[in-house]
Design a protein that fits this description.
Layout (H helix, E strand, L loop, with lengths): L2 E3 L9 H5 L5 E3 L7 E3 L9 H5 L5 E3 L6 E6 L9 H5 L5 E2 L7 E2 L9 H5 L5 E5 L1
Antiparallel strand pairs: 1-4, 2-3, 5-8, 6-7
């Protein structure tokens, strides 16, 4: 689940790096004339896609977009790690009670799932 930047289309503007909440797009040279995405670090949220002014960012081969992120209430212990990690503030709830995800805030990056120690975050792909 990653995106890639087509170098022949990259303008080196850095918009993708600005849009990425996780700092994944990085310059490939000292002059910052081109950017690249490390597929092993990309969460596949797609925040960089729409902001690119030259349509240089596309899904990498085999990319699966995230369709939905939810919380399995049976596994959730209400620790709030997901809520503290989420840049959009989508997970919410009371400590020591199962949390839920506000889908109107969630932009489906899946970052919360990387922080959950109880496998309570369910990420569904397209």
């Amino acid at each position: 689940m990653a995106y890639q930047i087509y170098q022949e289309r990259c303008l080196g503007c850095g918009a993708c790096a600005y849009a990425c909440l996780y700092g994944v797009p990085q310059p490939v040279d000292f002059e910052k004339t081109k950017y690249a995405i490390d597929a092993s670090k990309c969460l596949g949220c797609g925040q960089c896609v729409d902001i690119c002014p030259n349509d240089a960012v596309h899904p990498a081969p085999g990319h699966r977009a995230i369709r939905r992120v939810s919380i399995n209430k049976t596994n959730c212990i209400g620790c709030s790690l997901c809520a503290r990690a989420c840049p959009a503030g989508a997970p919410h709830g009371e400590l020591k009670s199962p949390f839920t995800i506000d889908e109107s805030k969630c932009f489906r990056c899946g970052y919360c799932a990387t922080k959950c120690k109880k496998d309570a975050i369910v990420v569904e792909y397209e």
